[in-house]
Amino acid sequence: MSVKTVKGAKILLLAGDGIGPEIVAEAHKVLMALPFEFEIEEALIGGAAIELYDQPLPKDTLLKAQQADLILLGAVGGPKWDALSNHLRPEKGLLQLRSALGLFANLRPAVLYPELVQASSLKPEVVSGLDIMIVRELTGGIYFGEPRGVRTLENGEQQAYNTDVYTESEIKRIARVAFELAQKRDKKLCSVDKANVLEVTQLWRKTVEALSVEYPDVVLSHMYVDNAAMQLVKAPKQFDVIVTGNLFGDILSDEAAMLTGSIGMLPSASLNGSAQGLYEPCHGSAPDIAGQGLANPLATILSLAMGLRYTLGLTDMALMIESAVKKALAQGLRTPDIYEPGLEKVGTVQMGDAVVRELKQLGGSK
Ligand code: NAD
User: Fold this and answer.
1) Quick check: is 226 catalytic?
2) Could you tell me which residues come within 8 angstroms of residue 3 by beta carbon, excluding any fewer than 6 positions away?
């Protein structure tokens, strides 16, 4: 994952469905307040694209995505399209996009803001200061392995099967992303597997171990997935970067994310080998609150910050956005999902405005 500063970077905004347009509009405002020239484009995906083009990922959107450096997505999906067949559903557009761009590395940070320590279900002393990065392999493993299917046995009983499969090169490329991230953080990497039972994860462990000689400054450890699930709720601050396969990563990243309280605060990144990235909040399109100005835009704004850091190499600007978010929270402003009595309840637009205001104070205005 080699990151360089991209001058005149191309950013594609894919608002999507439900609260998508509302939260992406706030991230757009933040982008416009930064002291840097971006080329910004917009396109349709998901249900919004189905309405106009009868398909969730129109050709024009895919083309714009292929040409963009950074893609910022709101969310896709909603009850209106739930009855459609699988290949036509809004979520299919997102899966097609991830696969077309070869986005194999999913980065899910779990950071607990001091102001939100009460939102976590764990005791403050267990979670305060939490800052974990989970790196999940996204395009291999059991979700894609062949053969897969359902067959009927001779006795008439049905049997279903999937295959967990990884090549050395797939393991190496995701491990490299994790080692490089660890080098920029606390230099600790924990590789999670089930090497006591599964051959595929024995190869995983052996390959990660062999690669570690190239990263002597990173302390590598290994942990079985059952223990990792336990340690994440027992003593989560022991972790810095965690790297794991698709299935274990799916589960552990949700577990780690929830240590931080609200889903409205969680950004994510999916990267390919040239650090081109799709950045999106971890939540969905929240149809229950769509169009009401209630959605928390911070996960999307923080996803933008991740994009500036990991795809465009604009670390200073990423830090500015992150500190503007912290300052908005420190003022006591809360969208309903993170509200606590005694603080000021605000809507989507007011929260976005507060971040922009803080950014300008930090010298972010053009
Ligand atoms: P969801 O994440 O949309 O909502 C779960 C709960 O969290 C809801 O109560 C919602 O109001 C709340 N919530 C979510 N984001 C919030 C925010 N920013 N601010 C405040 N509250 C927020 O999950 P769901 O209800 O299971 O799914 C709704 C739709 O989203 C479905 O169609 C699903 O397929 C889709 N989905 C899309 C993505 C994606 O685009 N990457 C991911 C997950 C789900």
Assistant:
1) yes
2) 275, 309, 310, 311, 312, 313
